[in-house]
Amino acid sequence: MATNLEVAIIDDDESIRTATSGLVRSLGWAARTYSSAQAFLAAAGHASATCIISDIQMPAMSGLELLRLLRAQGSEIPVIFITAFCTEAIRREALRAGAVAFLCKPVNGAEIQHCLEIVASGSPAGPR
User: Fold this and answer.
1) How far, in Å, CA of 39 to CA of 54, rounded?
2) How far apart are CA 88 and CA 91, in angstroms?
3) Nearest Cα to 34, choosing from 72, 65, 63, 74?
4) Is position 92 within any domain?
5) Torsions phi, psi for 51 (to 5 deg)
6) How many Cβ atoms from other residues are within 10 Å of residue 88's Cβ?
7) pLDDT tens string 34-89
8) Which ranges constitute the DSSP H helices of 1-128?
9) Contact by Cβ (8 Å): 33, 9
10) Fewer beta carbons within 10 Å, N or C terminal of the chain?
11) Is residue 128 part of a domain?
């Protein structure tokens, strides 16, 4: 995988950010981490991200609110949600809002790798 592909990892839990960024880098992607949706939006280079991996439940602005804001601004960046709040209602809401995948914690590396391969291929992911 080419390193010009960059994943923005957004989670309010530092240990999740660290583990996910390590996995993403081991798969050959560049990774930037953000502790909140607001930190991501405020970052000068956030527009360079190829993909977002985000938690759903975060203080101030949820992952779903971030996704809706990005879509309202015309951004089509692929968003993969990884969350401990795995209800069918939240999953449906996330996919309806445009997420390419909805994964439940704990998630294994193969699931993330599969989602990133779909993003890199440019193929429509279809709901997961």
Assistant:
1) 12
2) 5
3) 63
4) yes
5) -160, 155
6) 7
7) 999 999 999 976 778 999 999 999 999 999 999 999 999 999 999 999 999 899 99
8) 14-26, 37-42, 63-72, 88-97, 109-121
9) yes
10) N
11) no
- What is the C-alpha separation between 74 and 13, in angstroms, rounded? 28
Q: State the CB neighbour count (10 A cutoff) for residue 7.
A: 25
The least confident of 2-11, 13-22, 71-80, 111-120 is 2-11
Is residue 98 one of the residues assigned to a domain? yes
* Collapsed DSSP state (helix, strand, coil) of residue 46: helix
Whether residue 127 is contained in a domain is answered as no
Pair 62, 56: CB distance under 8 Å: yes
In which residue are the tokens 């977002």 written?
52
Could you tell me if 66 and 57 are in contact, meaning their C-beta atoms sit under 8 angstroms apart? no
What are 15-36's pLDDT values in tens digits? 999 999 999 999 999 999 999 9
Q: Number of folded domains in the chain?
A: 1
Residue from 17, 20, 8, 4 nearest 112 by CA: 20
* Tokens, residue 5: 């592909």
